[in-house]
Amino acid sequence: MSKGLQESMDNTVGVKIKEEIEVFEEPLQILENKTIVKEDIEMNMCKQNMKNFEIKVKDEIEMYEEPIDITIESYCVNPQVTHTEKAAYRCFYCQIKCIHCGKTFSNKNAIKRHLRIHTGEKPYQCIHCEKTFSRNGYLKKHLRRHTGEKSYQCTHCDKAFSNNSDLKCHLRTHTGEKPFHCSLCDKAFSYKNSLKHHLMIHIGEKSYQCTHCEKSFTRNGILKLHLRTHTGEKPFHCSLCDKAFSQKKSLKSHLTTHTGEKKISMHTL
Fold first, then answer.
1. Rounded to 5 degrees, what angle do the CA atoms 47, 52, 53 make?
2. Is 159 in the same domain as 135?
3. CATH number for the domain including 114?
4. Between 233 and which of 48, 91, 136, 228 could a Cys-Cys bridge form, CB atoms 3.0 to 4.6 Å apart?
5. Which residues form the C2H2-type domain (predicted)?
């Protein structure tokens, strides 16, 4: 573990311990748990998982590294309270309230980030494309797509990813986990977008319109396949002859003519 990341983790754990001491007044037990928790993490994680964990902690720390300065008085839930003693890390008396939705936050940085949801402000712009982001941490994650940096390694195969959320989605291909359930039938899906596209079948919505004809489709991928009938694009090339095809399944079917493989019809069984 790098020295800088170790110090950041220690500081983060230290703040949490300080908060729990102030609330529960059990300093000895909590201080002892600090060592136990860190030892348990290192003992129960393989080397690659530990590396992924360190990168995730670093990302979380970077997510909140943005200088913010706003006037707090107008947001305080209970500004008339006089504090009996100074709170070093968090004030449990004067939480900050959002004037738009009523949610409360413990510090001005948190309310500033939250307010961007209502205002739509995205001050962080990518230097490679036109995308903008509400947080500096989101921009840093996005930049990895341009640089090609892939720090998150799958422990089951050789694939690597630019952010932890993509790795989590990929891991479902190994575990078979399908957490997204359709409320209209018994199907479940590994990805949220897959469920979204499936629901369009139930409601009959066809949001993807062809620009060359009047046909519309439930999924963008199906529209792309259809567009090839207009453009004549054939991206799937046979490596054994000069033929090319617009769909992958057509290429697979064609390859059987070279290998001699024949599909058996259900009627011949």
1. 95
2. yes
3. 3.30.160
4. 228
5. 96-123, 124-151, 152-179, 180-207, 208-235, 236-263
